[in-house]
Every structure is written in C-alpha cells, then in structure tokens.
Design a protein that fits this description.
Layout (H helix, E strand, L loop, with lengths): L12 H5 L9 E2 L1 H11 L1 H21 L5 E11 L2 E14 L5 E10 L14 E9 L8 H68 L4 H33 L17 E2 L13 H14 L1 H22 L4 E13 L2 E2 L7 H6 L1 E8 L5 H68 L5 H35 L6
Length: 476
C-alpha cells in the first residue's frame, strides 16, 4: 500500500532539508560582549589600575630628586648670659647627574661658640655644591630607583595586557559555548517537532487501519526520547546563559543578566573556514616572541636587574665626596658691602671639604653583585624556556586550526550524506518500503551529525581566539 503523508502532519523531504534559525529577539554579538567586558568588568577595571600604579611608583622615585629646605636653631641663655645661638638654614637641590646644589644662611653667635663655627653678627650666606668623585658619579640610589620604576611601568603594562587577554579569551570561549548551546537547542527543538508531527500522523493512520498499532508505540517512544534530549539541551542553554552573564556589569559595578530574548550570533559558516598559511604561522611565532605579555614581563624584570647591576658595580668604587661652599657675610639678599667677583674673592671666602671611605674586603658589595648576576642568569634561562614554550604553543594551536578545518569539511559532507539518507528513507517510507523505526534512525543520525558539526564550528571559533591569545595579541 502506498503511504501518503497527511498534509500538515507528517514532514516531507523539503521540510527536513533546512533548519530554520530562530530569528526572534536581538542578537548579542561577540563584539558586544567584548565592549561590555573591556569597559565594565571588574577584572578589566582592576587591570586598568596597573599603569596608574606604575606611574605613581615613578612619581615616588622622582621624589628622591625633590628640592629640600631645612632649618635648625639651638640657643642657650642662663642667668642673663647668652651662651650660644646656632641657626642654620639650608636649601638643597639634588641634580640628576649625581651632585647636589645647596644654598643657605647660618648665624652662630654667643659667648661660648667655637671659633670653627662662629659667624659674623649679621650671619653668613653661602652657596655651593656637593659632588661624588667616584661612587655615585655615574649612578646612585636615586637614579637607580627612577630607572627601576620606569622598568616597572613596562612590567605593569605587560601585566595589564596579560590580564585582559586572559579575560577576553575566557569570555570568547564561553560565548561560543553559549552559541553552541543555542544551536544545539534549536536542532533538538526542530527534531522534537518533527517527531511530534510524525507521532500524530502515525496515530491517525493507525486509527484509519493503515498502520499497525506498534508503529504508534515506536513513534511515541522516539518522541519521548527527543523530548528528554530537548530538556537537557534547554538546561545546557540556561546554564551557558548564566555563565556568560558573569561577564556583564553596569556602570555602577552591579552584575547584569542577559535578557531572555537575546540570542547569539551564528557559529562560523563554511565561508569563514580559512586555511592558515604557513607564512602566517611563522609571523605569529615571531610576533609571540616579541610581544607576548609573559615574555615582556620577564624582559622588564631583566631591565630592573640590569639597573641594579650597574648600581652594585658602582658600589665597588670608594666613597669620595667633595664639598665646596662660597661664603658671603650677611643675609642672602642683603650682603655686607659690594660683591667683587674676582679670583681673590674665591680664594679667600670659601669652605672646602673632602671625605673618603672604602671597605677593605668588599665582601658585601661583591656578594650582592654576584647574587644579581645569578638572578639575571636565572631570568635569562627562564626567558629562553618561556619563549620556546610560547612559540611551541602557537605552532600547536595552529596545527589544531588546520585539523579542525579538515574536520569541518569532512563533517559537512557527513551532514549532507546523512541528509540524503534521511530524504531517501522518507521517500521509501512514503512508498511503503520502510518503517517508522528506520526513518527515526536516519533522523537521529542526521541530528547527531548536525550537532557534531556545530561542536566543531564552536571549537574552530575558540581555536581562532586561542591562537591570537597564544601569539600575545588582542583577541578583540
């Protein structure tokens, strides 16, 4: 007997060839997610504080070169007798090149003031310099601190990029899981609708006596199996939506939830399945070696150790300081008499000082320098290994890309073949040459192939994001 599909009940070949995509609701694209993450996610905002923190570290280090003013006064009077009055005011201006410029006014008078420090009654003004002649001439603690803080800025920027790249990679992977769960839900919902239509059609044919009652049991069992799969797919979709909502925050740092009406963008279509050229792989490998955040952090640490090495090497020199002060009787802006800028004045109105200090064994200085060299060697070895690991990771993910591209092409053919087998089984069923069991089996095989294809599409999109992350570039 020829079996004819009842209109509106039993799906024909045309109805099963294309899966209508859900077009209701607003599309929440991957770029929309990246915008929310980069602007409002707490981790992104936390990462944004790192450069500012580094700038404040530089500012703090530069404070070591801030000019400093000081004033000291000591006096003693007993039984109406003026023993001493010592007043010293100094302005010291550190200069980047290692020496200090200073100017001041002192007034030391009284009955018991030593002649070494006694000044005229009107006081004594002076201007001078303090110059390191050995240790501290080329580099000192102040310049080293500033240079290390500047190296810290590079470290902070690398840490910021690393944090953001990891956050965006995680968001991209969860987004494509969300898109996959939506695609799976649509596939199983459509498959369940087909089973429901078939069950009602078979039940009607049984009532008319055209089919055996066991066929309705077969159709009902298949419908219930697909309904159970649909429930599981709906739970997966809901959980994926909740997981993706973790990346959504508003301007007030309050968590947001994805609206129930939004849907993801489609998984990568065949037109987006590109072969990765070999020269592109090598370009990515070189790019990773140059700008990967983890490698940049190690290089910044090496820069800091390099500054420390220069400072410790300078510590091997003796401490030799020269102080020269040009003197002038009277207050700074009201000197006594006219100023005579000549050789006689400079040779008769000055205060000169020299200081020398040098440890005989230099055990502390040499051990610190050796420790610094060991730290540098450790960091260099670590950089070499990390560079190799990063480049290997890029090549490994590129291999995954190529394998997925081939798998997608094969799986696309599998879906087409499964569709052809299902359509052929439908024709046989309509001609009375097949059974409900066989057509259900063909549809189950088709849906399984479609879900597998969707999983490969999601993995392909995730691999694209992972490759950009492994190369150290932005995933956006």
């Amino acid at each position: 007997m020829c079996l004819v599909a009842l209109p509106g009940l039993l799906p024909g070949r045309a109805a099963a060839q294309a899966l209508p995509r859900d077009t209701t609701g607003q599309v929440f694209t991957l770029s929309d997610l990246f915008t929310h993450v980069m602007l409002r996610h707490p981790v992104a905002r936390q990462a944004g504080l790192l450069p500012e923190r580094a700038q404040q570290e530089i500012r703090y280090a530069r404070g070591l070169l801030d000019p400093e003013i000081s004033s000291k006064y000591y006096g003693k009077t007993l039984n109406d007798k003026d023993y001493f009055n010592l007043w010293d005011n100094t302005l010291r201006v550190p200069v980047w090149f290692g020496f200090d410029v200073k100017a001041g006014f002192e007034r030391n008078v009284g009955s018991y003031v030593s002649e070494q420090i006694r000044t005229p009654q009107q006081g004594l003004s002076y201007v001078g310099v303090s110059v390191p002649l050995a240790q501290g001439l080329l580099i000192d603690e102040r310049r080293a601190a500033i240079r290390q803080a500047q190296a810290l800025a590079g470290l902070a920027e690398a840490e910021r990029r690393s944090t953001l790249n990891k956050l965006v990679l995680s968001a991209a992977k969860d987004y494509w899981e969300w898109s996959l769960s939506h695609q799976r839900l649509e596939l199983l919902r459509y498959n369940t609708d087909l089973a429901d239509v078939r069950f009602r059609a078979v039940r009607e044919r049984v009532r008319q006596g055209d089919l055996a009652a066991i066929d309705s049991v077969e159709a009902l069992t298949e419908l219930q199996n697909r309904q159970a799969q649909l429930v599981q797919a709906r739970v997966q979709w809901q959980n994926a939506t909740l997981k993706l909502s973790n990346y959504l925050w508003d301007e007030q740092n309050q968590p947001r939830e994805l609206p129930a009406t939004v849907r993801p963008q489609a998984l990568p279509a065949p037109t987006a399945w590109r072969v990765l050229p070999q020269d592109s792989v090598e370009t990515l490998v070189n790019l990773a070696g140059q700008m990967h955040p983890d490698l940049a952090k190690t290089r910044a640490k090496l820069n800091q150790l390099g500054v420390e090495r220069k400072l410790l090497s300078n510590k091997l020199l003796p401490k030799l300081f020269a102080d020269y002060n040009l003197l002038r009787a009277g207050q700074p802006f009201r000197p006594e008499g006219a100023m005579q800028w000549n050789g006689s004045y400079f040779s008769n109105n000055y205060k000169l000082g020299l200081s020398f200090q040098y440890p005989l064994l230099l055990r502390q200085e040499r051990s610190k320098l050796q420790l610094n060299q060991l730290k540098r060697r450790e960091a260099e070895y670590g950089l070499q290994q990390d560079t190799r690991d990063v480049q290997t990771a890029v090549r490994s993910i590129a291999n995954d890309w190529e394998a997925l591209h081939e798998q997608l092409r094969v799986q696309e053919q599998v879906v087409r073949n499964a569709q052809t087998l299902r359509n052929g089984e439908q024709i046989r069923f309509e001609n009375g040459e097949s059974s409900v069991f066989l057509i259900n089996a063909r549809e189950a095989s088709l849906v399984s192939a479609q879900v597998k294809l969707a999983e490969l599409q999601a993995k392909y999109a995730q691999t694209q994001a992972t490759l950009r992350w492994a190369a150290g570039g932005s995933i956006e």
